[in-house]
Amino acid sequence: MLVLRSGLTRALAARKLAPQVCSSFATGPRQYDGTFYEFRTYCLKPSKMNEFLENVKKNIHLRTVHSELVGYWSVEFGGQMNKVFHIWKYDNFAHRTEVRKAVAKDKEWQQSVVPNLALIDEQETEITYLVPWSKLEKPAKEGVYELVIFQMKPGGPALWGDAFKRAVNAHVDLGYSKLVGVFHTEYGALNRVHVLWWNENADSRAAGRHQSHEDPRVVAAVRESVNYLVSQQNTLLIPTSFSPLK
User: Fold this and answer.
1) CA–CA gap between residue 75 and residue 39 (Å, rounded)
2) What is the DSSP letter of 21?
3) Of 23, 105, 136, 176, which has the fewest beta carbons less than 10 angstroms from its beta carbon?
4) What is the rounded CA–CA span in Å between residue 121 and residue 123?
5) Is residue 132 a contact partner of residue 30, using CB atoms and an 8 Å limit?
6) How far apart are CA 33 and CA 151, in angstroms?
């Protein structure tokens, strides 16, 4: 019994002495707000983009009755061609379940999507949360959007969150681009972060990127976050005429 008690005492002491990893990017604050964002990506058949978007434009009001559409874009540059990307907002998972049930019972909406089903080759969905230090911003005027996807090393935000935050804020604070939101994937590829930026046009985005790469403050912040980076990919998004985010 004394040996057991002694071993337990040592184990508890070691546990108290173990370093605690903390991060402002930790998921704790998120848990008090169940709001999440569903990212949907559809890969369309070649030459069918215009037909698909016209069908959506005519009928999207039937779908937005059930839940909030944040934005709807076509992919201009980066990755696979003939692709659309859209973001939907939900209060929590129960809300999404209710919405999906209502959508399934909405005969008018179901009939409206039939023509588009034959135009889609692939569909992908991800569930994401805004990181605790980011909120969804709406640009004041129309422009183009850049979605940058960062695949980070395993270990989670407690490992790389602070460095990543500093890298993003370096661009924001110095005015090189306008941040729309930073999202962390909950369902999909883990340790993935999506950063959505707005620029007035593709040329202003190119100019801002060139200037930021010559700014030692940005370079220093980015260099630190690169230590935790596995890969990254960016796409230029053009908002559709019916997208809430223009």
Assistant:
1) 14
2) P
3) 105
4) 7
5) yes
6) 24
Torsion angle of C-alpha atoms 59, 65, 71, 76, degrees rounded to 10: -10
- The CATH fold assigned to 36-239 is Alpha-Beta Plaits (3.30.70)
- Residue 191 tokens read as 């340790």
Strand partners, 176: none
Q: Is the pLDDT of residue 182 over 90?
A: yes
Q: Where is pLDDT greater, at 26 or 179? A: 179
For residues 4 and 75, give the distance between their C-alpha atoms in angstroms, rounded to a whole number. Answer: 63
| Cα–Cα distance, 146 to 235 (Å, whole number) | 6
Tokens representing 127 are 């569930």
The residue ranges of every structural domain in the chain are: 36-239
- Which residue stretches of the chain are H helix? 2-17, 49-64, 93-105, 107-117, 157-173, 202-213, 216-226
The candidate with the shortest Cα–Cα distance to 41, out of 117, 148, 124, is 124
DSSP label at residue 244 = S
How many angstroms separate the CA atoms of 183 and 135, rounded?
A: 9
User: Rounded to whole angstroms, how far apart are CA atoms 197 and 35?
Assistant: 20
- Whole-angstrom distance, CA of residue 177 vs CA of residue 14: 47
How are beta strands 178-187 and 120-130 bridged, if at all? antiparallel
For residue 27, the 8-state DSSP code is: S
What gap in Å lies between CA 23 and CA 29, rounded to an integer? 11
pLDDT per residue as tens digits for the range 111-152: 999 999 999 999 999 999 999 889 999 998 999 999 999 999
